[in-house]
Request: fold
Amino acid sequence: LRLLPQQRHLRAERAEAGALERKRNVLCCLIARILKVEKQLHIDNLVFKVMAACQKGELGPGLRFLSFCCRSVDVLACVLHLLNQGYLRRQEERPHVLEY
Reply:
């Protein structure tokens, strides 16, 4: 009986998936925090504020050690995820304005 060594690429894929999930969670929390303060915000301004907070390292309490590249497509994907989950909504007369 011979045991095969663990495949390294599977561990790397799991670690990468975990990192992407943590990144999405951080961005979703940051989006929610910004919209709670602002009440309503144009989607472009929201993306700008999230990206600025990521660049400055203002990710919130306990998250200052995280550093990752934040792109507009990442933020927009999280916005769509939160819209689908029902945490955010669009104004009917102005669909480009988001509310928490």
Notes: The chain has one domain: 7-99.
